[in-house]
Amino acid sequence: NLGALSKPSLLPGPVRRCRLHPCRRQQVPLKMDISSGEDSDISESEMEDYEDKYYEKLKNGNYKIKHASGVGKSNSDKRSAREKANHLALFKYLENDLRGTVGSSSSSAAAAAEAEDPLSGCDHDEKIVWPWTGVVVNIPTQKLEDGRSVGGSGSKLRDELIRRGFNPLR
């Protein structure tokens, strides 16, 4: 079930259903469903002309698209977690995959922000743990009569690791 578009302030004409974007309030008409059976005060050809003009303005950077990030980062309970995740994915796609293909005024602002960010060249997905942490596996164990498996004491394990050159912390 696709939600109805709210009429953006710059768009004249009737409110339409968005075929590609399922949210209730959308500032950018991605593709309008003209044959939805709704009453219309403009013809299909006028709608297509307007869509083409508005698309060119978006493409040239005349309008900024902030809807996806706003919905994705909102704390509102009106939208489900899945809908927020869909909006964040759309925002990520627009920012990462379409950034170089669309000449927009926000591109220069984003480039300036990246130049100021000292971590812009870092892999932000890399997980960092400090102090370094390790998981000890394959510890020799013994099976007791009651069925439990037990290993050596923690102090014996720590002493063994120190002998091997490690400096385990508590």
UniProtKB/TrEMBL annotation:
For this UniProt record, the keywords arranged alphabetically read as follows: Coiled coil, RNA-mediated gene silencing
Q: Which segments constitute the Zinc finger-XS domain?
A: 65-91
Q: Which Gene3D superfamilies match?
A: XS domain
Q: Name one Pfam family in it.
A: XS
- Tell me which Gene Ontology terms the entry assigns under biological process: gene silencing by siRNA-directed DNA methylation
At the top level of its lineage, which domain of life is listed? Eukaryota
All residue ranges annotated as the XS domain in the record: 125-169
Spell out the InterPro entries in the cross-references. FDM1-5/IDN2, XS_domain, XS_domain_sf, Znf-XS_domain
Q: What is this protein called?
A: Uncharacterized protein
Q: Which organism is it from?
A: Gossypium harknessii
State the taxonomy lineage.
Eukaryota, Viridiplantae, Streptophyta, Embryophyta, Tracheophyta
